Amino acid sequence: MRAKLSYALTAAVLLFYFVLVGSRGVMLIQTGTVLTVTFGVAVLILPVIGLWFLWKNTQFVRRANALAAELDAEGGLPVDELKRTPGGRIDRDSADEVFAKRKAETEAAPDDWRSWFRLAVAYHDARDTPRARKAMQRAITLHDGRPLEA
Questions:
Q1: Confidence at residue 2, expressed as pLDDT on a 0 to 100 scale
Q2: Which helix (H) or strand (E) element contains residue 121?
Q3: Which residues contact 92 (CB under 8 A, 6 or more apart)?
Q4: I need a labelling partner for 65 at 20 to 30 A (CA). Which of 30, 34, 87, 117 fits?
Q5: Secondary structure letter of residue 81 according to DSSP
């Protein structure tokens, strides 16, 4: 729940920022000189890119959470079998061990979104966020029945 609140607060702050920057861009365009119109258009591009990124990220998070809920209902969420340091951090060797199991599971069933979901969790536990996102995106794609991109 705390993560959802943090995400909502961050999104709200970003939306406020996009509106503020967008209004400045409009003000520059309204000035009417070639230079201010050019700067105004350039300034308006930033909120558009930001809104697109925020929208895509929110869609990704919602879909990943939906997969987690479905997997939980099936009883297929990965069990936390990781060893932790006294400070609470995940032990690296333990994460590597679990990752090897998840990778083998995914190689055995490459078209199963569930194995890709569990692999994404293993990547996340191993602190490899880019690969975790790619694995989760593949799980979402497989679940939705869309063709995989090359």
A1: 87
A2: helix 113-125
A3: 126
A4: 87
A5: -
Cα dihedral 100, 104, 109, 112 in deg (nearest 10): 0
Strand partners, 90: 84
pLDDT category of residue 70 using cuts at 50, 70 and 90: very high
The tokens for 143 are 């679940």
Phi first, then psi: what are they for 99, rounded to 5°?
A: -60, -45
pLDDT at position 150, please? 52
Do residues 29 and 41 make contact, with C-beta atoms less than 8 angstroms apart?
Answer: yes
Q: How far is C-alpha 133 from the chain's CA centre?
A: 6
Cβ-contact 41, 1 below 8 angstroms: no
Residue 59, H or E segment: helix 34-74
Q: Which of 104, 108, 106, 109 is nearest to 134 (CA)?
A: 106
